[in-house]
């Protein structure tokens, strides 16, 4: 399974390939996820979980500047070591099995990781995210986007695949979830593009069972 490959080695390799680019990113202006989180105007001490948190730079910024209580999970052991230096509760693992309490978080973020997840785990991933998210709560998803699901070989290792789809549909079928923001942009420079192969979507969803009809 792909998750085992990323837990064993590919997660660390991903970090090594992308470490410089992530380090050079200026926050919050270069981070669309952070800009959406800021726009939510959540109170200090809000609890945030990022799935696919990498080295935790985004979480560290929120913890320092917004006074949130931040946790993260990532398959890379090296990324977790770096994240822990920022006093983040960071755990090596995958999104299909979250070691957190039910209804623990005000916000759950999928930080560009779903495109690498095993398709057989998607139901478990959605169920776990829903379990740990408070009601009401906020769900933020950034990932490759396609109107029709597609599968392509992963450039960096044979036998691994990347998957594009509308990841909102993992949650939007349920009456408790409403998509309030959905932005499709070029995955490199965040501009508008007609090239569907370059699409990345950033979606903000509200979980609120009391508000569902």
TrEMBL record:
CDD domains in the cross-refs: AdoMet_MTases
GO molecular function: methyltransferase activity
InterPro entries: Methyltransf_25, SAM-dependent_MTases_sf
Transmembrane segments: none
UniProt entry keywords in alphabetical sequence: Methyltransferase, S-adenosyl-L-methionine, Transferase
Leader peptide range in chain numbering: none
Record PANTHER family: METHYLTRANSFERASE (PTHR43464), UBIQUINONE BIOSYNTHESIS O-METHYLTRANSFERASE, MITOCHONDRIAL (PTHR43464:SF19)
Name under which the protein is recorded: Class I SAM-dependent methyltransferase
């Amino acid at each position: 399974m792909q998750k085992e490959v990323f837990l064993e080695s590919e997660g660390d390799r991903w970090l090594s390939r992308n470490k410089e680019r992530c380090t050079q990113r200026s926050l919050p202006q270069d981070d669309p996820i952070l800009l959406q989180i800021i726009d939510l105007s959540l109170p200090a001490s809000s609890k945030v979980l990022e799935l696919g948190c990498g080295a935790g730079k985004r979480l560290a910024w929120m913890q320092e500047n917004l006074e949130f209580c931040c946790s993260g999970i990532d398959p890379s052991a090296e990324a977790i070591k770096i994240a822990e230096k920022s006093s983040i509760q960071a755990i090596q693992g995958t999104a299909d099995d979250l070691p957190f309490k039910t209804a623990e978080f005000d916000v759950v973020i999928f930080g560009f990781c779903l495109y690498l997840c095993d398709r057989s785990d998607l139901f478990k991933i959605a169920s776990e995210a829903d379990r740990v998210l408070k009601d009401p709560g906020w769900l933020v998803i950034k990932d490759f986007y396609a109107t029709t699901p597609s599968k392509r070989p992963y450039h960096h290792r044979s036998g691994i695949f990347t998957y594009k789809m509308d990841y909102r549909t993992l949650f939007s079928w349920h009456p408790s979830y409403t998509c309030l923001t959905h932005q499709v942009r070029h995955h490199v420079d965040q501009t508008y593009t007609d090239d569907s192969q370059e699409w990345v979507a950033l979606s903000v969803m509200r979980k609120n069972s009391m508000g569902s009809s």
